Q: What sequence folds into this?
């Protein structure tokens, strides 16, 4: 089934109230043709995903529909938008894939909250590394230092995403859950780096 056929089926079914996608991936048969892991990859092509998203939203735009179909189009548009945002963001994507396997994770779940770790401490080395990076951010005195730390953190996220691809493909859900927690820490570090600013008297301020 090609993308246009699948898109037509989706919108026709929405009007009949007889069909709903099994998961977010079903909405994007062109850009994510293999579906979610383990059959497909954890990684997605953002450009292809956005192109298909825009095609879907163009079909679902409420202004193209009237009467009862307009309300259904609004619901379809919201569904597409939620699916796109979830799949586009690696951390949200990982949490969503875990939810498909019955694993619910809160947005603020931390290593200390890991039920699998003795004493509630899953990875002391990671905690120490995160603390050290946070201290480096606080101690930074120049934009150049922050940019260097950003490069290093992007690499950490890349490695984590590659690990998630392997773990989901292998069906290691507990490993994927642990790696998702790890990725969450590096995403938070990235936010701290983005929010860094140098104040006038030489002190460094970080706004969350």
A:
């Amino acid at each position: 089934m090609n993308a246009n056929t699948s898109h037509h089926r989706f919108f026709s079914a929405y009007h009949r109230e007889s069909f709903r996608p099994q998961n977010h991936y079903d909405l994007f048969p062109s850009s994510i043709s293999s579906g979610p892991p383990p059959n497909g990859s954890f990684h997605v092509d953002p450009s292809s995903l956005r192109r298909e998203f825009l095609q879907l939203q163009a079909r679902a735009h409420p202004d193209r529909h009237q009467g009862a179909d307009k309300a259904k189009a609004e619901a379809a548009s919201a569904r597409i938008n939620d699916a796109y945002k979830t799949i586009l963001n690696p951390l949200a994507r990982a949490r969503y894939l875990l939810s498909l396997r019955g694993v619910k994770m809160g947005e603020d779940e931390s290593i200390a909250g890991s039920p699998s770790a003795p004493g509630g401490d899953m990875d002391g080395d990671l905690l120490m590394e995160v603390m050290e990076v946070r201290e480096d951010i606080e101690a930074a005195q120049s934009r150049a230092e922050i940019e260097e730390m950003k490069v290093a953190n992007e690499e950490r996220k890349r490695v984590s995403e590659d690990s998630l691809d392997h773990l989901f493909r292998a069906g290691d859900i507990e490993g994927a859950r642990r790696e998702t927690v790890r990725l969450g820490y590096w995403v938070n570090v990235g936010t701290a780096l983005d929010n860094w600013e140098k104040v006038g008297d030489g002190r460094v301020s970080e706004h969350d």
